[in-house]
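Q: I'm building a small set of examples for a reading group on sequence design. Run inverse folding on the following structure and report the sequence directly after it, with nothing in between.
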């Protein structure tokens, strides 16, 4: 099956996250439903023609704008992720290693042998869910 070529037209809007140019899709992508949408050229955020967010870009400004858009009630629920991202990466690694050493010391390698399959299964489930969200299966 041959996919149609996608043509992007200028919508006349600017992104409220990064200030980039927002383009309107004309055509169809095989991995998306047949609904046209808007997409920011810079950050990659996507909106329906009615203004509902389809995909949030990976930038920090994108997440902040989305948390302002959904209101303070839902922003508080995801506030733990914001607080976690403020902790430096090196400190997160040190805390993780310390917890791992404590588990090995007090639980022994038997506990490690039992936790490793659970961790691998959890990681695979996380990857499947993330892939499904990117493909808009749910």
């Amino acid at each position: 099956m041959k996919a149609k070529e996608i043509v992007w037209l200028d919508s006349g809007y600017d992104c409220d996250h990064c200030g980039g140019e927002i383009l309107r899709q004309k055509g169809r992508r095989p991995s998306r439903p047949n609904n046209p949408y808007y997409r920011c050229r810079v950050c990659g955020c996507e909106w329906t023609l009615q203004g509902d967010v389809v995909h949030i870009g990976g930038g920090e400004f994108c997440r902040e704008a989305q948390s302002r858009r959904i209101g303070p009630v839902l922003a508080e629920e995801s506030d733990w992720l914001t607080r976690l991202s403020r902790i430096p990466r090196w400190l997160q690694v040190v805390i993780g290693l310390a917890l791992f050493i404590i588990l090995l010391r007090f639980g022994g390698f038997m506990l490690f042998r039992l936790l490793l399959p659970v961790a691998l299964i959890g990681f695979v489930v996380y990857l499947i869910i993330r892939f499904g969200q990117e493909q808009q299966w749910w």
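Strands lie at 7-14, 21-26, 37-40, 46-48, 53-55.
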